[in-house]
Amino acid sequence: MSGTDRAAVVAGVGAWVPPAVVTNEALAERLDTSDEWIRSRTGIRRRHVIAPGGATSDLAVEAGRRALESAGADDADVVVVATSTPDRPCPATAPEVASRLGLTGVAAFDVAAVCTGFVYALGVAGGMIASGFARTALVIGADTFSTILDPLDRTTRAIFGDGAGAVFLRAGRPTEPGALMGLRLGSDGTRSELIEVKAGGSRQRSTGLPARDRDTYFRMEGRPVFAHAVRRMATSVRATAAEVGWAPADIHRVVLHQANARILAAVAEQIDVPAECFPSNIDRVGNTVAASVPLVLADACVSGELSPGQRIVLGGFGGGLTWGSVALVWPDVTAIRSDAAPVSPSPTDY
Ligand code: ACO
């Protein structure tokens, strides 16, 4: 996105989580786990889950509407939804989201890069703006992993939550606050088995055999994923910062995918940026997959942890394996982050 006189500029931020809150204590009533284990190993205290009958598009619409309002915009040339839990395998979720936002007729498509999805989507939409194809884009990260978790898997059920976050991009100059700079995206498909849902795609369906129940659930090998997440995010953030000419001491905030509080601390140490410079909301929302980066961005904006003029790097890591990062000087935007009042779901609903 560099090297031209046109860049994608962040002009609005919004996020939303569904009202139903599942605490660690509630999980421990149904699974062999404890609040102490979950808090000490992950930093998570609670997570939000969608109501029965809800879907990813419902969350994406809420976040998208808030990002449009934050930008003072009522249209967008492109709508991109980053998700690994689309409403259906086919068609993509984005066209329906666009229509429900009153944007029928615009380009709309999904991007799937699991927890790196939002950073990938920023790259794609930002490139469309920088190339002159689009003037504006609504980039949404939304996931509902509660719908694909194994009800008996205490590890994944402790970690993941549902949510959505969105950023509105407009065309601007590469030198102005909010311009996306130094984008890095990467992947390693040789380790795809570390984070996967085995069934539901062409490989399982072409066998003509029904999927086994456990193959329809999300699974993750936590230990190796932890090590990859730290190494890949640290390397990517460092490279992005170097590309835009920032030393570690120049970086005010590192806004990372919220996978585990211990991962944030380890990346901070590796890149030599103080842990206090890493905004985090993982205690309240858990790992919300593609929603994670825009959700923590919105929360940090509202809490005042992010302020105009700060040099920030966004970074993600997820299934694929995939990773990515991008730098920007934080612009003068007001994030819209209003949720419905929290409720406790019935134990049969999560
Ligand atoms: N409660 C109690 N015990 C548990 C729980 C739980 N919720 N979960 C696991 N355990 C147990 C395990 O069964 C194991 O027991 P054992 O020793 O008797 O076999 C023990 O705790 C240790 O298990 P580990 O998996 O080694 O625990 P670890 O400390 O590694 O923490 C975790 C697991 C939290 C998953 C961690 O590995 C992690 O955060 N990994 C990275 C996740 C990540 O970065 N994801 C990003 C990408 S996700 C995406 O793209 C969708």
Descriptive notes:
The protein is an alpha/beta fold. The protein has two domains: 3-176, Thiolase/Chalcone synthase (Peroxisomal Thiolase, Chain A, domain 1), CATH 3.40.47; 181-329, Peroxisomal Thiolase, Chain A, domain 1, CATH 3.40.47. Helix content is 32%, strand content 23%. It is built from eleven helices and 13 strands. It has helices at 24-30, 35-42, 56-71, 94-100, 117-130, 154-159, 202-205, 222-243, 261-271, 282-285, 292-303; strands spanning 7-16, 20-23, 46-49, 78-82, 107-111, 136-143, 163-172, 181-187, 195-197, 218-220, 253-256, 311-318, 322-329. The strands form four sheets. It has a five-stranded mixed β-sheet with strand order 1-7-6-4-5, sandwiched between helices. Strands 8-13-12-11 form a four-stranded mixed β-sheet, with helices on both faces. Helix 4 (94-100) links the parallel strand 4 and strand 5 (107-111). The longest helix is centred in the middle third of the chain and has 22 residues, at 222-243. The radius of gyration is 19 Å and the shape is globular. Acetyl coenzyme *A is lined by residues 33, 37-38, 41-42, 114-115, 154-155, 158-159, 195, 220, 222-223, 225-226, 229, 259-260, 263, 289, 317-319.
